[in-house]
Amino acid sequence: MTNKIPGFALLILFVGSLLACSVNSGQQPEYTLRFGHLANRQHGWHQAAKRFAEEVYRRSNGRMEVRVYPSEQLGKEMDVLTGILVGSADIMITGESLQSWSLPNAILCATPFAIRDSEHLKKIAGGPIGKEIEQHIIDGAGFKPIAWFERGARNLTANRVIRHPDELNGMILRVPAVSLYVKTWSALGAKPTPMAFSEVFTALQQSTIHGQENPFALIKDAGLYEVQKYCMLTEHVKGWSYVVMNNKKYESLPKELQEVIDEAAAVMQAYEHELFLKQEKLDYEHLLAQGMEFIEVDKEAFREAATKAVMENFNEQQNDLLRRIQAVR
User: Fold this and answer.
1) Which of 100, 110, 146, 218 could form a disulfide bond with 214, CB atoms 3.0-4.6 angstroms apart?
2) What are phi and psi of 91, to 5 degrees?
3) CB of 153 within 8 A of CB of 237?
4) Which of the four CATH numbers 3.40.50.720, 2.60.40.10, 3.30.830.10, 3.40.190.170 does domain 154-238+288-327 have?
5) pLDDT reading at 37 higher than 90
6) Is the pLDDT of residue 102 over 90?
């Protein structure tokens, strides 16, 4: 006797087989983008980059894939930026390092006392002035900013209380190798000493240097609370970083995939900001729990002295931009 399958059941089997073929087809993305950054896998930057990758894949229906490489897996910042221009990388998180491509206005991302607070930063980075800086970066080096991330404010730490610039009194202060920072802290009365961040803990422990300045996150992650008692709330640099990709690569994509990049980048930016605000609070509470004391300072005195030094070292175009930034309310 022959078993017969009803027509409707045959139809179901046929459709099911088609779906199975579709799901298991292993279709490769048409485009693959490599996204490198410096942070570890727990950092908000990495979490935001992963969210971007998920959004790109979903919104493009699998046509485009983003592979994220944390912890300098694609190389150090300058290497990855160069890689973006030659095609060995596609996306990177960066900031004032863009100065190395003859982009003087990029330093406005991290200029002492240019930005007052988070609301001011949002108006600048996300407003007309930010768009000008982005176009400057595109025209000058070929990097296209697709999003920006707020960075934690830099604060001064030491083993004595400092409320006014006059109290720096030649204090030996570690700063990053950024000439503007060296000149600004010199004008404030300190003796700035550029040094690799990896050397800071030992130098503080041995009193080779007396203080340093960094956001809460780096103070916490490096355990600097073990060798520094006070954190002065100078908030002297409130800045942002850009997520950039090769502009030619972006423009070579089909229009609908450019829109996918834009939409996914907007989601990433909002998500990173949410993570940043939560982490900033947690970092502050951690430092407090470890015994660090937070000191309010005469911020206006710091601002006045620092701004004078900055403007003396800026060119006319940079100073014009700085004045416009400070005028935004």
Assistant:
1) 218
2) -140, 145
3) yes
4) 3.40.190.170
5) yes
6) no
What average pLDDT score do residues 239-268 get?
98
- Sheet containing 230-237: which strands, arranged edge to edge? 191-194, 172-175, 211-214, 154-158, 230-237, 293-295
Q: Indicate the burial class of 223 (C-beta count within 10 angstroms; 0-12, 13-18, 19 or more).
A: exposed
Q: What is the distance between the alpha carbons of residues 184 and 106, in angstroms, rounded to a whole number?
A: 17
Give the separation between CA 140 and CA 314, rounded to whole angstroms.
18
Show Cβ contacts of residue 291 under 8 Å, excluding neighbours closer than 6 positions. Answer: 225, 229
Long-range CB contacts (within 8 A, 24+) of 188-193:
188/302, 188/305, 188/306, 188/309, 189/165
Cα 297 to chain centroid, rounded: 26
pTM of the model: 0.86
* C-alpha span between 310 and 312 (Å, rounded): 5
Alpha-carbon gap, residue 58 to 311, rounded angstroms: 47
Give Cβ neighbours of residue 19 (< 8 Å, ≥ 6 apart). Answer: none
**CA–CA dist 199, 210 (Å, integer):** 13
Q: Which residue has the tokens 């894949």?
A: 57
Once rounded to an integer, what is the mean pLDDT over residues 254-261?
A: 98
Q: Is the dihedral of CA 295, 169, 171, 175 positive or negative?
A: positive
Taking the domains of the chain in order of start, what are their residue ranges?
29-152+239-279, 154-238+288-327
Tokens representing 310 are 């900055």
